[in-house]
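Notes from hallway chat w/ T.B., transcribed later so I don't forget. T.B. wanted the structure written out for a chain they're using in a teaching module, and asked if we could keep both sequence and structure tokens in one place. Agreed to drop them here.
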Amino acid sequence: MPVEGGIPEGLLLMPEEEILAFADNIARCWLAQDGLWFQAVEFSRGMNDARRCNDSTWARFSPFEAHSIKRLLGLGEEPGLDGLEKALAHRMYARLNRQDIERRENEILFTMQDCRVQRAREKKGLPDYPCKSAGLVEYSFFAEGIDKRFRTECVACPPDEHPDAWHCRWRFTLKD
């Protein structure tokens, strides 16, 4: 298949709605693969080892994803709050989950209103997956990958209590 500017011609000719459906499918496959490797480790080695591997994986994937998005969007070295806001909207999870970004004077409040992983557990009658340790790694490494001046704080994330209206909330503050 011919390629133009590194993009297969077939993608260039696709209508936007088909490209978005394709992106959604890629995101679902990515999340399914993430869950499958996690369960493989969990069932063979236990939950603690699976969570330890998961946290380590996010420590490597989040900066990679941040760098990729930064390059895609043409963000500079220190894009600040504007850059992080744009980057959060382009993460893989943004294709799968309902999220809200509230911009404040020197910070962004990011809320995962509907998490596909947690919703699947709810449907099975399971408690929330305690993802706070992974989130601390994931969100701080992602934000710092966009701009090293960010400090990341968890407002609440399972196993923390949270309202029914959302699953987790994170605060990103731009350091002076």
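Follow-up for T.B.: The mean pLDDT is 93. Might be a good example for the class.
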